Amino acid sequence: MEPAVLATNLFHTYGDGLRRKTILHDVNIEVRPGELTLITGPSGSGKTTLLTLIGALRAVQEGSLCVAGEELNGATPEVQTRVRRRVGYVFQASNLLPFLTARENVMMSLNLLAEPLPTKERYNRAAEALAAVGLADHLDDYPATLSGGERQRVAIARALAHRPRLVLADEPTAALDKQNGHECVQLMRNVARTQGCPILIVTHDPRIQDIADRILRIDDGHIQEST
Ligand code: ADP
Ligand code: MG
Predict the structure, then answer these.
(1) What one-character DSSP code corresponds to residue 86?
(2) Which of 27, 83, 166, 169 lies 20 to 30 Å (CA to CA) from residue 89?
């Protein structure tokens, strides 16, 4: 099976002239199906840059980056859109819409599919995704009535509902206490295993490292397997 992510000799540079700074330096990584991979590194080490490159949210400058079966270096807008639709995103803040219920928030993400699903199908899939993160009893709750951990679980359900080939999470536990952070990441690992969907988390949170199948460290723009 092809890797969900394959980066080969990937470089990324910001700015020009004196301000020119290479953030990613010859990065080589492979994300395999069914695994929860953690990329750690200090603030400013390029974690978000790498994640946005993988999510086709930023153009690849140099090197090869294959995501969900597509090469992103030199990719057309159509290819970028295709990759974005195959990826689920989880951010630091859950970014739920406050005037929609948990179920409606998850249904929203299903509006963005290339081939729209009938409302009934979206309705059912949202319930399924929320049940998978332990929120079957909270389908009709509004974000304000949910705890921080529950809101982040809704965000995870939203990222999974369209059955992505890969889930990317940027500091998903930063706003949670240790126990909720742990639960969220454990949940993501279960999903990675049961649905075979690989999950890539970038974080500087050392509290969740024991849950990962694999840990990579980013240091001075280089990435290494952590031992
Ligand atoms: P991390 O997520 O690990 O904290 P980032 O990928 O956000 O790191 O940033 C890595 C470095 O690149 C930082 O020094 C940051 O200031 C710089 N940087 C990030 N985005 C930009 C940008 N759009 N333009 C210039 N520099 C940037
Ligand atoms: Mg960051």
Answers:
(1) T
(2) 27
Ligand closest to the CA atom of residue 42: 1
* Predicted TM-score (pTM) of this structure: 0.93
Ligand 1 pocket: which residues have CB below 6 Å?
A: 14-15, 23, 41, 43-49
Nearest ligand for residue 16 CA = 1
The confidence score (pLDDT) of residue 227 equals 61
Lowest-confidence segment of 9-18, 43-52, 166-175, 185-194 by average pLDDT:
185-194
Distance, CA of 163 to CA of 159 (rounded, Å): 8
Q: Are 156 and 90 in contact (CB under 8 A)?
A: yes
Strand order in the sheet with 166-170: 87-90, 166-170, 199-203, 36-40, 214-219, 222-225
The torsion angle over the Cα atoms of residues 221, 5, 3 and 152, rounded to 10 degrees, is: 110
